From TrEMBL:
Annotated gene: LOC106174535
Membrane-spanning residues: 232-254, 260-280, 292-317
Annotated keywords: Cell membrane, Chloride, Chloride channel, Disulfide bond, Glycoprotein, Ion channel, Ion transport, Ligand-gated ion channel, Membrane, Postsynaptic cell membrane, Receptor, Signal, Synapse, Transmembrane, Transmembrane helix, Transport
Similarity field: Belongs to the ligand-gated ion channel (TC 1.A.9) family.
Domain of life: Eukaryota
Subcellular localization: Postsynaptic cell membrane
A Pfam family hit: Neur_chan_LBD
Location of the Neurotransmitter-gated ion-channel transmembrane domain: 237-462
Bilayer topology: Multi-pass membrane protein
Listed name of the protein: Gamma-aminobutyric acid receptor alpha-like
Organism: Lingula anatina
GO molecular-function terms, A-Z: chloride channel activity; extracellular ligand-gated monoatomic ion channel activity; GABA-A receptor activity
Any one GO CC term of the record: postsynaptic membrane
Domain Neurotransmitter-gated ion-channel ligand-binding: 24-230
Length: 474
């Protein structure tokens, strides 16, 4: 019985409250004209605004836009909706009431493609206070334009504005203000993270915008300040490009006779750098303005092309022959050796014939053990020795290479890894007489000049880009 005693008053109170709210709304809207703003003909209506940002992104350099998901909140005073009820401090009403009351014609001046969320129902919230203050909130996805300065890309800062104001009312009719003048009216959710940017600030202000056809308008502006993350570009662009340039410097340690190796290395590095450049340019707009990344690629291209031009100079001015053997010189040497052998053969032949003639003139018996026979054998041996096929210059070089290769392979590898200067000097001295594996002085100088200047330019590049001061509004 006691349970019914407590339930009946509760039910009666709920029913009375419902009837009270319905009667209050009917009385408020009975003579209400939604076509007229509050205080029509008097002072301007003040609309206070604040934004709660749930997420941001993506930010597109190609389209020069950015997007964000937020709760857009507006508060204004409409004395026609004021009510006096001891049981009600605020009225939380359905969003359908928005069609029956006056609402600000707020627009985003630099907006491109924004929409209100309607799943599963329109994400709108409306409350009316006793003094007629209306609190209106809705969830929006806003996509706005963001004029970007890409001169220092990817070491850049970007400032993306959001401009809010009235579509038709001038500053004599509506005035837009931030809800909290001395504090931030822009609240960022702590979980907001961007893939390529860090949000470092969001100062907001209000000012008067002069419109030629409408007059002066009071608008609100918030400037989102972004700083680009360098992690992706360091790992995917700068470090690989620098390594490709360093790889092109390896050609200075390849002997000038290895024409195919050095040219192939240069072409490979050029093609690799070109591919990387084209892939990174796809994410940027096609503008005539060069970026910091473009200048870095230009510097890398310059060094790679310079290595190929350096080898062309070495090949043209210091290298003899076709790269393997100096054929002309080898033929001259071979002709000289053949001429020398012919002269020796002629002398042997004359000596042999004169000896035979002397023996026949003396008519000495030819015995197997006689000195004459021994002389004859000795002469034939000398003749055979000088008339046997001589080795050419190329065969002589092959023989030298075979002799040099007799050293134990592990010992060769160990000395090569240790970089023994005496061993390298010995191999150079052994190879120099043949004209093989020679090193140009231009290559020796380039081994120092190219890496040193590339390092210096990198230091200047990073110092210049990182020391730029960007004007950030307060």
């Amino acid at each position: 019985m006691s349970i019914h005693v407590f339930l009946i008053p509760s039910v009666l109170c709920s029913e009375d409250l419902r009837q009270n709210v319905s009667a209050t709304l009917d009385n408020l809207l009975q003579f209400y004209d939604s076509n007229l703003r509050p205080g029509y003909g008097g002072s301007p209506t003040i609309i206070k605004t604040d934004i709660y940002i749930r997420s941001m992104g993506p930010i597109s350099e190609v389209e020069m836009t950015y997007s964000m998901d937020c709760y857009f909140r507006q508060t204004w005073l409409d004395e026609r909706l004021a009510f006096n009820s001891p049981n009600l401090s605020t009225l939380a009403v359905h969003y359908s009431l928005l069609e029956k009351i006056w609402t600000p014609d707020t627009v985003i001046y630099n907006g491109l493609k924004s929409h209100a969320h309607t799943i599963t129902t329109p994400n709108k919230f409306l409350r009316i206070c006793q003094d007629g203050t209306i609190y209106y909130s809705m969830r929006l996805t806003i996509k706005t334009s963001c004029p970007m300065a890409l001169q220092y890309f990817p070491l850049d800062y970007q400032i993306c504005p959001l401009v809010i104001g009235s579509d038709a009312y001038t500053d004599r009719e509506t005035v837009y203000e931030w809800k909290q003048a001395n504090a931030s009216s822009i609240t960022i959710d702590p979980g907001v993270k961007l893939s390529q940017f860090n949000l470092i600030g969001h100062p907001h202000t209000n000012y008067t915008l002069q419109w030629p056809s409408k007059g002066s308008l009071k608008v609100l502006e918030v400037k989102f300040q972004f700083r680009r993350n360098m992690g992706y570009f360091l790992l995917q662009v700068y470090v690989p490009c620098s390594l490709v340039v360093v790889l092109s410097f390896v050609s200075f340690w390849i002997n000038r006779e290895a024409t195919a190796d050095r040219v192939g290395l240069g072409i490979t590095t050029v093609l690799t750098l070109t591919t990387m450049f084209m892939e990174n340019k796809m994410d940027l707009p096609k503008t005539s303005t060069s970026t910091a990344l473009d200048w870095f690629f230009i510097m890398c291209f310059t060094y790679i092309i310079a290595t190929m031009l350096e080898f062309a100079a070495v090949h043209y001015f210091t290298k003899i022959g076709s790269g393997e053997v100096d054929v002309t010189w080898a033929e001259d040497e071979e002709e000289e050796e053949e001429k020398s052998f012919k002269q020796q053969n002629e002398r042997v032949k004359v000596e042999y014939l004169s000896g035979v003639k002397n023996r026949f003139s003396k008519r000495e018996p030819r015995e197997s053990g006689s000195p004459g026979c021994f002389s004859s054998k000795k002469a034939r041996h000398r003749k055979h020795r000088f008339t046997q096929p001589h080795r050419t210059l190329i065969q002589h070089r092959i023989h030298n290479v075979m002799q040099k290769s007799e050293e134990h392979g592990c010992l060769l590898c160990l000395r090569c890894l240790r970089g023994d200067s005496k061993y390298r000097k010995l191999l150079t001295m052994r190879g120099s007489p043949d004209g093989i594996n020679s090193v140009s002085r231009i290559d020796k100088v380039s081994r120092i000049v190219f890496p040193l200047t590339f390092t210096i330019l990198n230091v200047l590049y990073w110092h210049t880009c990182s020391s730029q001061k960007f004007e950030m509004p307060i």
